[in-house]
Amino acid sequence: MTDYKEEQLQELDILQSIYPDEISIINNEFPAIALQVNLLIETIPKDTSSFTAEMIDWEYHLNIMFKLPENYPDVAPLIEITPIETKKSHIKEEEEEEEEEDQAYDEHGNPIKSKITDIPGKIHFDDEYIHDKLLSHTIPSQIENDMLLGMPMLFTLINSIKEDAEEYYTEKLHQYELKHEKEIQERELIENAKFVGTKVTKETFNAWRIKFRKELSLDERNKERLMKSHGGRLSGRQIFEQGLAGDDDDEQELIEGVAVV
């Protein structure tokens, strides 16, 4: 017959030796043993990240409450998890204020959106993660494995929660960085597009040339200049070479404008 009281008290002693600073005993009286573990989540970025662990000014803990049923470990413990987020210091807040005062601008006069911003501050161990991920998947899966082995499970549960939370943080940081980088690139493309002219082709150049000459009355001025230089009359060849004969010109008007050569 299993001595549940002895097993639970032994596991409690082991946990206190492993987590001397993190564990708090809420009740050590069987059959209502309860304890709380204040678990530090280490924030470790990917190798490709713009951040290092030292640059992250946020500290995350998960407070895990375990309540042991009378016949634990044959029955799973009751678990509650509360996330805690705190700033490590106020030093970086002062640095950020100084950086805001010394705002840099790009060549177009727009404020430069820094690649190193407080992205870590956007990451939270919210209810969706706690309930939908940890309590619904990670923890039940670990409990099932431990119960198959018939062994105390609090230590392995704590490790599983820690590993899952740290992986979650690393991946979230990576996703936010990719999103931030994409926003910067899109903004740069928009700004650069403002300074890219229309590609010049033969057709666009001819259209511009016609419009330009019309606006400045160049063709009329050329016609007047040539008329003066030829005594008021142009040869048929000159008329066609200068493009002065319109599509709707009357034949008689064309004949009258042609000098005998």
From TrEMBL:
Origin superkingdom: Eukaryota
UniProt xrefs under Gene3D superfamilies: Ubiquitin Conjugating Enzyme
Start-end of Acidic residues biased regions: 94-104
Name listed for the protein in its UniProt record: Related to Protein GIR2
Region (Disordered): 87-111
SUPFAM superfamilies, per the entry: UBC-like
Domain RWD: 10-168
Pfam short name (any one): RWD
